[in-house]
UniProtKB/TrEMBL annotation:
Belongs to the ABC-4 integral membrane protein family. LolC/E subfamily. This is ABC transporter permease. The chain crosses the membrane at residues 20-39, 263-286, 314-338, 362-385, 430-454, 660-682, 703-732, 752-774. Its main location: membrane. GO terms for cellular component: plasma membrane protein complex. It comes from Prosthecochloris marina. Keywords: Cell membrane, Membrane, Transmembrane, Transmembrane helix.
C-alpha cells in the first residue's frame, strides 16, 4: 500500500465519527433519489404494460340506450382502431356478513372468453360458462375486503328483480386500478365492487337485447382524439349520450397518473437538500483538516510528492465517505423502493405491480455522489495544492480580530465570560454560523414538510366528513325519479331526515373552452349537505346562475359575472345561457351548483331528483338496511361513516411509513450538522479551552462555551426551519394538487411541536457525544501542540 493511502486510511479511522456522519447524510439523499426514481418508473411502466396487455381503451362514452347496429358506423370513423360495446349497470348488493347494503357495478363480458378492450385479469377461479347467467367474476379488492371466496353467493337487485350471483372468479381490470363508487373520491372496498357478467345474462336482466349503454374504443396511431369525440357526440346524441371523453378524464387513470407525477416531484427536492448538506460538511471538515496538516503538506511536497498526488490524497477524504454513503444509500433506496411499492399495492389495483431497479439509478447516484464530493472538497483541495512547502512549514497568520458587541466595558461585568466567548466566536465566523443555521433548518423543514401531507389529508377529511357532509347514508337512484319518491323514503322506519338533489350531465362552454360537468341542483345549501370551502366558510346558493368550484373556474377561465353556455346532455338536451353567480374553493373534484328549482326551469323537466341524503336512526338501521337491499330503483348506497373508516385505514399505513422515514432522515441530517460543527469547533479551539481549564474554569463551564455555540445555532435554526418547512409544504401543495383534489396549506400544532422535540433531542444527543470527548481531553498534550 502506498504511503499516502496508509495515511489516508489512518486519518479516516481517526475521524471515523465525522466521516460516518457525512456518509449517513449522503446515504439519505441517495436513498430518496433511488427509491423515488425506481418507484416512479415502476408505476409508470407497470401502468403502460397493464394497459397494453389488457387493452385499455382510449375513448369512452355512456348513453341511455343505443342500438348495436351503430357499431358499424363507429368503426367507419377515421382514426378508430377497435370498438367494444358493453352494458354497464349499478345495482344494490346483499353481501354475506355485511349488515348495510353494498353497491356493485355490473359490466358485461363476452359469453365466451376472448380478447376484448378493457379486458379482465383473472387472478383466481375461472371464466363464466355459457348457460349459467348467475355466474360472475368479482373484483379482487371487494372479495378480500369482505372475506369472500370462489363459490360464494351475493344477492343483487337488477332492474327491480332479485337475483343471486355466484362468484366463479376473482379479477382485476385496468379500468379500475383505483376502484371507487361512481361520484365518490375515497375507496370503500367493502361496500363497493365491480362484477363482470356475461353479455347475454345482463341483456336479459336489463331488457337490453340488441342494445348497449357503454362504448369504448382505441385510436389508430396519429388519430385525432378530439375529432373522434366530436363524431361520437354527433352520432349518439339522439341515444342519450352523456358525451364522449378521452382516457385523461377517466377517473381511475387520472388518479394513477396524478400519483406518478407527484412521485416524480420528490425525486429532486429531498436529494438536493441532503447532498447540499453533505457538501457543506465536507467543506468544513476538509478545510479544518488542511489547516491542521500544513506541516504535513510541506513535508509531502518536500520529499517529492506532486501537487496532483497531494490533491488526490485530500480528495480521497471526500470520496471515501461519499462512496460509502452512495453504496449504502443505493441499497437503502432499493429496500425503501420495495417497501413503497407494497404500500402502493394497497392503494392501486394492478394485476402485478413490478418493482423495477435500473442501472440508470445506480449511475446517477454515483454521479450525484461524486459531484457532491468534488464540490465539497474543491476549496480544501485547492488550498492544499496551492501551498508552497516553505509557506506550509509556517503556522497560519493569526486572524486580526476586533472587539465584539459584548466586549464593551458596560457588558464585561454584567455578562458571564462564557457567554461573551460564545457570542465573540459566532461574530468572527458569521458566514459559517449562518450556513450551519441553514443546514439545521433544513432538517427542521424536512420534518415539517414530511408531516404536512398528514395534516392536509386530515383537514380534507375534517371538511368533507364533518363540515360538508352531515348525512348518514346516500341513496342513488338508477334513473331520475319524481319528487314523490320522498314519500316512499319517509315511510321507511328509521329515516329521520331526508334531502334530495338532482344531477344533470351537461357541457359547460365559455369562449373556446369547454368541459363535461354535471350540474348539481340543491334545495338548500345548509342542510345535510352544506357548501363549505377549504377554510370551512359556508356559502349560499346564488339566487340565479351557477356556483362553480375555483378549479372549474380556472379550467374554463371564468369569474363571477361571466355567462356560460350550458348544453344539457339528456332529456330535452336544451342549450341555455347561464350566468356565473359565484366561485367556491372546494377541496375535492370539480362541481357546479344551482338551485334545484332553477335547474328544473332550465331543463324544462320539473320535479325530478337523482339521489337522496338521509339521516337515520342507528337503533333501527339493521331493518332499514334490509329494506334498501331489496328496494327496486336504487342503483347504490354509500355510508359516510364507512367511507371515512376505510379511508383512514389506508391513510394510516402510508402516513406511518412516511413519518418514520422523514423523521429518521431529518434526525440524521440534524445530528450530522450539529455533531460535526461541535467536533470541528473542539478541534479548532482545543488549545483555547485547555488554557481556560488551566486558568480555573470547570469542565461544566468549558462545555457551556463549546456546546453553547451549537445550542444557539440550533435555537436560531428552529424558527428558520419552520419558515422553510412552510415554504416546502406550499410547493408540495402546488405540486400535489390536481383537478381531482386540492391540497390545503394547513399545519397542526403537533407538526411544529414534533419537529421541535426531534431536533432538540438530536441536538442534546450530539452534545452529549461531544461532551464525552471534551471530558477526555488531554490538557498537557493539547497545550504542547504547536499552533
Amino acid at each position: 500500500m502506498k504511503q499516502l493511502n496508509r495515511k489516508l486510511l489512518r486519518e479516516l479511522l481517526r475521524m471515523k465519527s465525522q466521516m460516518l456522519a457525512v456518509a449517513a447524510v449522503v446515504a439519505c439523499g441517495i436513498s430518496v433519489f433511488v427509491s423515488m426514481s425506481s418507484v416512479e418508473y415502476s408505476l409508470r411502466e407497470t401502468k403502460v404494460r397493464y394497459y397494453s396487455d389488457y387493452r385499455f381503451a382510449d375513448v369512452f362514452m355512456q348513453a341511455k340506450r343505443a342500438p348495436e347496429v351503430m357499431l358499424e358506423n363507429v368503426r367507419d370513423i377515421r382514426g378508430v382502431a377497435a370498438v367494444r360495446s358493453r352494458i354497464v349497470a349499478d345495482v344494490t348488493l346483499d353481501v354475506p356478513g355485511l349488515n348495510e347494503p353494498a353497491s356493485g357495478r355490473l359490466v358485461s363480458m363476452p359469453d365466451r372468453k376472448r380478447p376484448v378492450l378493457n379486458d379482465v385479469f383473472l387472478r383466481e377461479g375461472r371464466y363464466m360458462e355459457a348457460g349459467h347467467p348467475e355466474e360472475v367474476i368479482a373484483s379482487e379488492t371487494f372479495m378480500e375486503a369482505n372475506g369472500l371466496q370462489i363459490g360464494d353467493r351475493v344477492g343483487a337487485v337488477i332492474n327491480g328483480r332479485w337475483k343471486e350471483l355466484v362468484i366463479v372468479g376473482k379479477g382485476l381490470s385496468p379500468e379500475y386500478i383505483y376502484e371507487v363508487q361512481p361520484g365518490a373520491f375515497f375507496p370503500d372496498n367493502r361496500r363497493f365492487g365491480v362484477f363482470w357478467m356475461s353479455r347475454d345474462a345482463l341483456e336479459a336482466a336489463l331488457d337490453m337485447t340488441g342494445a348497449f349503454n357503454d362504448l369504448s374504443l382505441t385510436l389508430a396511431h396519429g388519430a385525432s382524439e378530439k375529432d373522434v369525440i366530436q363524431r361520437l357526440d354527433d352520432m349518439f346524441s339522439r341515444y342519450g349520450s352523456l358525451g364522449a371523453y378521452g382516457r385523461s378524464e377517466q377517473l381511475s387513470d387520472r388518479f394513477i397518473s396524478d400519483e406518478i407525477k407527484q412521485v416524480g416531484m420528490q425525486i429532486t427536492v429531498l436529494p438536493t437538500i441532503f447532498l447540499a448538506v453533505a457538501v457543506f460538511l465536507l467543506n468544513i471538515v476538509l478545510k479544518r483538516l488542511v489547516s491542521t496538516q500544513r506541516d504535513q503538506i510541506a513535508v509531502m511536497k518536500a520529499v517529492g510528492y506532486t501537487n496532483e498526488e497531494v490533491g488526490l490524497h485530500y480528495l480521497g477524504f471526500a470520496m471515501v465517505p461519499v462512496g460509502i454513503g452512495a453504496v449504502a444509500g443505493t441499497a437503502l433506496g432499493v429496500w425503501l423502493g420495495l417497501g413503497l411499492t407494497k404500500v402502493y399495492e394497497g392503494f392501486y389495483n394492478f394485476a402485478e405491480l413490478i418493482y423495477y431497479f435500473r442501472f440508470e439509478e445506480v449511475a446517477l447516484s454515483v454521479l450525484l455522489s461524486a459531484g457532491a464530493a468534488l464540490v465539497g472538497a474543491l476549496s480544501a483541495v485547492s488550498q492544499a495544492v496551492s501551498l508552497p512547502p516553505a509557506e506550509a512549514m509556517r503556522p497560519e497568520a493569526p486572524v486580526v480580530y476586533k472587539p465584539g458587541v459584548l466586549d464593551r466595558k458596560e457588558f464585561q461585568k454584567k455578562i458571564p465570560v462564557s457567554v461573551r466567548i460564545i457570542v465573540r466566536n459566532l461574530e468572527r465566523r458569521i458566514w459559517k454560523a449562518a450556513i450551519s443555521v441553514l443546514m439545521i433548518a433544513f432538517a427542521v423543514a424536512i420534518l415539517i414538510a414530511g408531516r404536512y401531507g398528514y395534516d392536509a389529508v386530515n383537514h380534507i377529511m375534517l371538511v368533507e366528513f364533518n363540515e360538508k357532509h352531515r348525512e348518514d347514508l346516500t341513496v342513488i337512484f338508477n334513473e331520475s325519479r319524481p319528487y314523490s319518491v320522498q314519500y316512499d323514503l319517509a315511510s321507511l322506519d328509521g329515516v329521520l331526515e331526508q334531502e334530495f338533489y338532482r344531477e344533470e350531465p351537461a357541457r359547460l362552454v365559455y369562449e373556446h373552452r369547454s368541459r363535461r360537468q354535471s350540474i348539481t341542483g340543491l334545495k338548500t345549501s345548509n342542510g345535510l349537505k352544506r357548501l363549505v370551502d377549504a377554510q370551512k366558510r359556508q356559502f349560499q346558493l346564488p339566487e340565479s346562475g351557477l356556483l362553480v368550484t375555483s378549479t372549474l373556474a380556472d379550467v374554463l377561465g371564468i369569474s363571477p359575472g361571466d355567462t356560460l353556455t350550458v348544453e344539457f346532455l339528456q332529456g330535452k338536451r336544451r342549450t341555455v345561457r347561464v350566468p356565473v353567480g359565484g366561485v367556491i374553493d372546494e377541496l375535492l373534484g370539480l362541481s357546479a351548483y344551482m338551485r334545484i328549482e332553477e335547474l328544473d326551469r332550465l331543463t324544462e323537466e320539473r320535479g325530478i331528483v337523482s339521489a337522496a341524503y338521509l339521516k337515520i336512526d342507528e337503533a333501527k338501521s339493521e331493518k332499514l338496511f334490509a329494506d334498501f337491499k331489496e328496494m327496486p330503483g336504487v342503483a347504490g348506497t354509500s355510508m359516510l361513516k364507512a367511507m371515512l373508516e376505510s379511508f383512514e385505514e389506508l391513510i394510516a399505513q402510508s402516513t406511518t411509513a412516511s413519518t418514520v422515514i422523514f423523521t429518521t432522515f431529518a434526525s440524521i441530517l440534524a445530528f450530522a450538522v450539529v455533531y460535526n460543527g461541535a467536533r470541528i469547533s473542539l478541534s479548532e479551539r482545543a488549545r483555547e479551552l485547555s488554557s481556560l481549564r488551566v486558568l480555573g474554569l470547570t469542565r461544566h463551564e468549558i462545555a457551556v462555551i463549546l456546546l453553547g455555540e451549537q445550542a444557539i445555532l440550533t435555537i436560531i435554526a428552529i424558527p428558520v426551519g419552520f419558515l422553510i418547512g412552510i415554504g416546502l409544504s406550499v410547493l408540495l401543495a402546488l405540486g400535489l394538487s390536481s383537478e381531482l383534489y386540492r391540497m390545503p396549506v394547513v399545519f397542526s400544532n403537533f407538526n411544529f411541536i414534533f419537529a421541535l422535540i426531534v431536533i432538540v433531542v438530536v441536538a442534546v444527543f450530539s452534545g452529549l457525544m461531544v461532551n464525552f470527548r471534551l471530558n477526555r481531553l488531554d490538557l498537557i498534550a493539547v497545550l504542547k501542540t504547536r499552533e
